[in-house]
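Anyone up for a design puzzle?
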């Protein structure tokens, strides 16, 4: 059994273009907390800034993920690309939603407890293990490409003028996105898998995330601390986080 908790917070923005999915629950405000038997998916989505109807895009994306009824027999790549095409078709049909797009980063657990993780865009998956935080996902962004080429440094990524330019995501009308499936060597006792949108990762450093996750407090309290710190550091975006742990009795960590 797995314990999942998620928080989505509009922050200083007038509305929330983020949303989260835990099992059957899609929300764009507040907290979702569940003990779940597999199969299930947990995921975060962020409506792309500058595109129309970002709040609709993220919520629709996660509702379509939920409705795929994931199991070990699901062809996840085909299913996610099918969701991309449904979103693109929907946005073509209405000028108010033209070219709406959304990132997607998630964890799929099948009925045999096998974990598949996936990413489109610049929302992130981290693993916190034995006091150390490791980014599992790879940002699909221009600054990530420049960093990998050696053109800019790690520090320059944070302030680069083009740091918000990302590669095609779900719903893009011009190009099909690349769904990346991420390496994960199972879960050990005490591991925390952390999904987040860039409202958190742009505002709170990995070292600060580590420090907060190390607190001997309930996971819910630690996530609330992460949201609070992002806001205190001047986050100008929505903030969404999901944490997942394995628990034999489904208890809260």
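Challenge accepted. My sequence:
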């Amino acid at each position: 059994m797995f314990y999942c908790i998620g928080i989505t917070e509009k922050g200083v923005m007038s509305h929330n273009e983020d949303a989260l999915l835990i099992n059957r629950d899609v929300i764009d405000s507040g907290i979702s907390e569940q003990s779940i038997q597999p199969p299930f998916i947990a995921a975060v989505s962020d409506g792309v800034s500058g595109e129309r109807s970002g709040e609709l895009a993220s919520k629709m994306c996660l509702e379509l993920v939920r409705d795929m009824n994931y199991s070990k027999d699901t062809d996840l790549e085909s299913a996610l690309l099918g969701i991309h095409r449904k979103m693109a078709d929907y946005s073509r049909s209405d000028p108010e939603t033209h070219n709406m797009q959304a990132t997607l980063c998630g964890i799929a657990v099948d009925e045999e407890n096998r974990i598949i993780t996936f990413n489109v865009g610049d929302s992130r998956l981290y693993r916190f293990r034995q006091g150390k935080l490791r980014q599992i996902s790879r940002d699909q962004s221009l600054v990530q490409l420049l960093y990998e080429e050696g053109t800019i440094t790690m520090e320059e990524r944070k302030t680069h003028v083009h740091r918000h330019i990302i590669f095609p995501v779900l719903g893009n009308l011009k190009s099909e996105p690349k769904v990346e499936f991420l390496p994960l060597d199972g879960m050990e006792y005490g591991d925390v898998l952390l999904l987040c949108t860039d409202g958190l990762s742009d505002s709170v450093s990995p070292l600060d995330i580590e420090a907060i996750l190390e607190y001997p407090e309930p996971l819910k309290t630690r996530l609330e601390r992460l949201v609070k710190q992002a806001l205190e550091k001047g986050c100008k975006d929505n903030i969404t986080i999901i944490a997942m742990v394995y628990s034999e009795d489904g208890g809260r960590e």
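A detail worth pointing out: The domain at 2-136+168-246 is CATH 3.60.40.10 (Phosphatase 2c; domain 1).
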